[in-house]
Amino acid sequence: MAKTLLNSEKQPAVIVAPTSSGKTSVAVEICKVSQRVILSADSRQVYQELVVAAGKEGALKKVNVAGLGERAVREIEGVYQFGVDLVSLRERFTVFDYKIEAERLLSVLQPPPLIVGGTPLYVDAVAYDFALPKEDLELRKKLEASTNEELAALLREKDPYVSPEIFKTRRRLIRALETVLICGRPLREIRRRRRRSRLKFFGLLLPRDELYRRIDQRVDQAIACGLIEEVADLKRKGYTDELLMQCGLWVRLVLLYLRGELDFDGLREQLKFKTHEYARRQLSWWRRNPEILWLKESSALRDKLLDYLQQ
């Protein structure tokens, strides 16, 4: 594809798609033409120790960013991907911290990067201007000492508009309650948001059978590339099961395998089934956003986004 000169008015854009859809590959194609970089919005890729388990691509490099100093990037076919390898697993890192780093990068990178994700809350944190409360560790300790039933009852009392059952894990329930208590407002008011100026959303929506086929293929590739060995090595280095259980679906399932609670075939099956389930949750989140322009093929997404960037 020939190199294209863009207008001086650089447009920001977001690409969203379920895991394994091929969104990063499309983003790399676009960035080669539009002379941009990628800003990853993925909660696993921020951790330095996770490579196979986070689906990282490209070689790790260090680059100097004007006004910010040295930053880690992944170089994929000559395109830099920011927002990765930010912290160690042993460091506390939340969507609040990601939002701060992403906004720093957005303030200096020109032309604006393509935001590519990923993790729905991370995408929203960088794509919209809305407040995220900083953690209150004392409050967190008090909430963690409560039972799930007590947490659910308190959330119903403080925020009658939200059902505790929508939070699939105890950690998410605690974080939601913490947010409501710190801000003193219901979640729906806290999350009222204003889209960044001129930002455009594009989504890749593959047929369900094709998406599942790609997920299954990626799972098989990850196992072949050392997913199990990566998690086992982290355990040998002293990372506790409690810490690793917070590192995403794939790591949690591999831990069950390493404990003997799943055999190899069961692990492979669960990795695929649970990732299908996660992809459906991603789509459920994004389908609530009427601003996303959905395309059904990678080539259509590439062409439509390039047209937009050249306006």
Keywords:
single chain, 311 residues, alpha/beta, Rossmann fold, Helix Hairpins, 3 domains, 8-stranded mixed β-sheet, two-stranded antiparallel sheet, 13 helices, globular, disordered N terminus
Assigned CATH class of the largest domain:
Alpha Beta
| First-last Cα distance | 18 Å
pLDDT averaged residue by residue: 89
Give the low-confidence spans.
1-9
**What is the tally of helical segments?**
13
**Based on the structure given, which CATH architecture of the largest domain is correct?**
3-Layer(aba) Sandwich
Q: What is the 3D form?
A: globular
Beta-strand proportion: 5-15%
What is the fourth-level CATH superfamily of the largest domain? P-loop containing nucleotide triphosphate hydrolases
What kind of sheet is the major sheet? Answer: 8 strands, mixed
Order of helices and strands: EHEEEEHEHEHHHHEEHHHHHEH
What is the number of strand segments?
A: 10
Number of domains: 3
Q: What is the CATH topology classification name of the largest domain?
A: Rossmann fold
Helical content (DSSP H or I, runs of 4+): 40-55%
CA radius of gyration: 20 Å
Strand order in the sheet with the most strands:
3-4-5-2-6-1-9-10
What structural class do you assign from the helix and strand content? alpha/beta
